[in-house]
Design goal:
alpha/beta; 9-stranded mixed β-sheet; 17% helix
Length: 251
């Protein structure tokens, strides 16, 4: 066999192997995120495009109609920046006005592994809106948003749209969340004793609220904690009895 043919065959084999490995890693990352676990590959994948940002304290995200909306990770960091995967290049736009980052993801078809990472030093509020197919019908966990790592006085979140919202590894004096999660939306608040005040006012149908402890600390309580939760009667609640006793259900 000629040397040139051997080189071509080796190049082809390496290319096919890389494509198969990349596809497997992305598929695995998607399954891990859907299961509710943090996936380092998904975070790393979002660093394909990096934008350094000036200071901001509030975030407004609008996500257009997508069969596979992007995963959004918002986390504390010393440096303000946004990173995202290549398939979002033509769909994403951002501006900063005063102390607010405005982020828009246009309608269109995205890869099922599209990721947006937002690093910010201080976060006061997050406003999220997403347009789903047929407005209310969407795949389970259609949008997944993670907010993590903030140690602050208060955080206000308003969500309108299909979402699986995870709030984890934060220490806050006050957490306030409201909005419409549409059909089957989900909210998960991990380590909830780390919040002195929790106020939730959520609308939607057949959704879920999960409130968990730190690992191996199920007996830990916050004696100064104040909780006020209003949910639709169709929501499923997975929480300690100390929380469920303070939930008001709407008909």
């Amino acid at each position: 066999m000629k040397r040139s043919n051997i080189i071509i065959m080796i190049t082809a084999i390496l290319t096919i192997s890389w494509l198969l490995l990349s596809g497997w890693m992305q598929s695995k990352a998607y399954r891990i995120i859907q299961s509710g676990k943090t996936c380092s590959y998904a975070v790393a994948a979002g660093r394909e495009n990096i934008i350094q940002l000036q200071a901001f304290k509030n975030i407004k995200v609008e996500i257009g109609k997508h069969s596979d909306p992007p995963f959004v990770f918002i986390q504390y960091a010393e440096k303000n920046e946004m990173t995202y995967t290549n398939d979002l290049k033509e769909a994403i736009s951002e501006t900063i006005s005063r102390d607010t980052l405005y982020l828009n993801v246009k309608n269109g078809k995205l890869n099922s592994n599209a990721v947006i990472n937002i690093n910010v030093q201080k976060l006061n509020s997050l406003f999220m809106s997403s347009t789903t197919e047929n407005d209310v019908n969407y795949k389970e966990n259609s949008v997944s948003t993670i907010i993590s790592g903030f140690n602050a006085n208060s955080l206000y979140i308003k969500n309108n749209g299909a979402n699986y919202l995870r709030i984890e590894k934060n220490k806050l004096h006050k957490l306030e969340l409201n909005g419409n999660f549409y059909m089957g939306g989900k909210v998960k608040i991990s380590q909830y004793p780390d919040y002195d005040s929790i106020k939730l006012d959520i609308e939607g149908k057949n959704g879920s609220l999960i409130m968990g402890f730190r690992e191996n600390e199920r007996t830990k309580r916050n004696p100064n904690q104040w909780i006020d939760i209003k949910l639709p009667a169709t929501f499923h609640v997975d929480a300690d009895v100390s929380v469920t006793n303070r939930i008001s259900l709407r008909k």
